[in-house]
Specification:
mainly alpha; about 0% strand; about 150 residues; Helix Hairpins; rod-shaped; single chain
Length: about 150
């Protein structure tokens, strides 16, 4: 087998070895993101439904509004309910975005750590392979170590 074939196989093995942990981490991250979306999805649906109900009430009140203080008070009350619903919706969105911003740096750090680990292992393997391929150089290195 020629040297370039061996080098190509070694490089392919290094790439596969580095890709597996990255793919595993990506899978775990995507699963966590899906779980977050699965938990927040019903909250968003509920908030949209409540907004739709409040909007319908406000439209009915606006249609029936004849200028009386009582009707105006109901309109203000419904507006307050809308504001509370929007506040709940905002909190849900904030918690989801906080989780997303926490996951991003963790994925980047994991990828960086796996890549550094794989690169160090690949360099050690390459050095060991070079020493096995050239026993004279390894004997000279041992002699130099003994002299030093």
């Amino acid at each position: 087998m020629e040297a370039w074939n061996v080098a190509a196989i070694v490089m392919l093995a290094i790439l596969v070895g580095a890709a597996i942990p990255v793919l595993i981490q990506l899978f775990l991250t995507l699963r966590s993101a899906r779980q977050v979306l699965d938990r927040t999805g019903p909250r968003v649906d509920m908030a949209v439904h409540e907004i739709h109900q409040v909007t319908g009430k406000m439209n009915r009140l606006a249609d029936n509004l004849d200028g009386g203080a009582e009707h105006l008070g109901k309109l203000v009350q419904e507006s307050g309910e809308l504001a509370r619903t929007l506040g709940k919706f905002r909190k849900s969105v904030q918690s989801a975005s906080a989780m997303g911003s926490a996951v991003g740096p963790a994925v980047a750090a994991a990828i960086h750590a796996f890549a550094a680990q794989r690169q160090a292992a690949a360099e050690a393997e390459a050095e060991a392979a070079a020493m096995e391929a050239n026993p004279e150089n390894s004997e000279q290195a041992k002699e130099n170590d003994d002299e030093g």
